[in-house]
Amino acid sequence: MKASCACSEVTGVISDWISENVSAFVEVVNADRVSTSLSSRNKTFSQWITIRADNNTFVYNGTTGQCDKSNSSLLQSFPQLSKITKNLTSMSSLIKGLVDFSNKYRGKLSSNKIVAGIEGVYWVSCADGVDGSINLQVEVVFAGKKSFEPPTYDNPLVLFVQIAEYGNFSDNSTLISQLSLTFNSYDLLSEDDNRLFMPPPGVICNGWKEEQVPVNFSDPFSVLIEVTDDQKHHYESIVHYSASQKVVMVKGARKDGIIPFINEQNVPDNVITVVHDFSTGYEYQLDHSQCVNLSALPSESEDVVVSNSTYTMRPVLNILLSPEISFGNYGKLMSENGRLHTVYRGIKNKTNEKVEVHLDGDQLYSYTIFKNVGKEMLISSNMRLTPTPYTTIDSVMENMQGCFAQSAHTDSSNSTFTIDVRSKSLKDVYEHGIGKVTLAIAKALSEVAPVNPLRVRAFFDSGNDNLLRVFFSVEEKTDIKPSLVPGYNYTAEVPTLVLIEKLNGTVSHGDWKFSVSTSGMNAEEWVVAAKSLRRYTPSSPDPITYYGYTGGAMFVLGVFTLVLGVGIGAGGVFFVTRRQRISNLAYQVFE
């Protein structure tokens, strides 16, 4: 006989002939864990998981839904087996102990027996005084070398084990206990079967070793979030989070009226995009084409931390993985995309919700919330995150700028100016991106004088001298006060005229430079030509030539028409009168 190998699965049946209890078992073994589950006729289910590294065992009770630390394995719950071996951590250790037992208590071979359709060699041993007083009869059936072999194992394999305790071998009525194990199958495992080594989805074991989730978030962190709820409704949103830019953008559908990721409520239904700008303290609510609302940052949003009336960004790690949750590493699973994911589970103390996160390497792949429904653990919502590296704030920048145009207390239509940029052309603008160049100009202007960069709009063209010409306008300061954020002073913001005066003083004394970010952390300096600042005045249209009569001619024509009309009228009256007189005369003649 031989023990089963690592990374294996063994199935079978355990029968207690005295209590008439029959249970099916499945045991899986790998280098890290041993998991054995037991299912009985009355539909009860239990699972024992032993962690090899620290020899801790956990038991999941399918009846109560609880998972707790245990001092014993499944096999140790059958005391008869301890007469064979003290090492009952797995079926493999049991069979190894059985081999040692056969060497100590010699038995004999008897006629072959058929077990599960396989002819096996029958061995029996009777041992007197085991453990001091017990008389033990051990029967084993194992597959001979000529028997059918499993595709992944070689014979001999154990097919059946029965242990009986007697008070007296010569008297069957002294039978104390009788336990048998029938082994139905042996097989090898693949990584697709890793779920067998952990408790059911959503189950948290008390006492499981806690570990920090080793997740890494890039900056910017841009993902497509797909949420599926317990009703199978599907929602998709784009999230862009950048600690360096101090901005959070969420764009797309919402679940139960709540903006995903930031969990903000009471946002108008027509709002498609919400942007939180922590560099200035504003929230921008946008639809597909324009600004809907400009306001201070909300205090209840998940991405906002308020301390001493100052608003700061909550780290993305703490938004997605709340610090209140203590996670444990429950193993690895093969995902639908063929990649091996590490599974972490924890409990939200405030709501008692069970959370399961999957990591693809050091990247967060999914986040699932479970809820208890009776004794079942059901999925409340599942969130999957897919990187979208090309998502930027530039896509909504124009609508954000529109918020200041709508809220400004004065008209800025006459606040358009031009500057010339040396050695640059429209091609350079398109290569870097219009939004990126516009933002670079806006930030540079805010360094000349304190203004919100989003008050600045820019357009680009080429001048007659082939220099890049920048047309920019600056909206007036809004009356809407932002939240208090580090590094920004709303009260210090200046009117447009003050900014232009300071810029004119800067440009008139020499070249002015602004930095445009390039790939990586690099930046490129663009140089504004000295004395090139001018107010933009649209050229007057060419004089329009009108063709037709002059006013005097029209007056004469009118008088002539009037006289002609009077003459025609008088002639008509004369003609009618004359005709009437002729008619009367004719009647007189015929009379």
UniProtKB/TrEMBL annotation:
* Segments passing through the bilayer: 546-576
Residues making up the signal peptide according to the UniProt record: none
List each copy of the DUF7959 domain by range.
415-537
In its UniProt entry, what is this protein called? Uncharacterized protein
Highest taxon above the source species = Eukaryota
Transport among the record's keywords?
Answer: no
| Organism name | Dictyocaulus viviparus
Question: PANTHER family from the entry?
Answer: ENRICHED IN SURFACE-LABELED PROTEOME PROTEIN 9 (PTHR36902:SF1)
Q: Which segments constitute the LolA-like domain?
A: 10-192, 200-337
Tell me the keywords, alphabetical order: Membrane, Transmembrane, Transmembrane helix
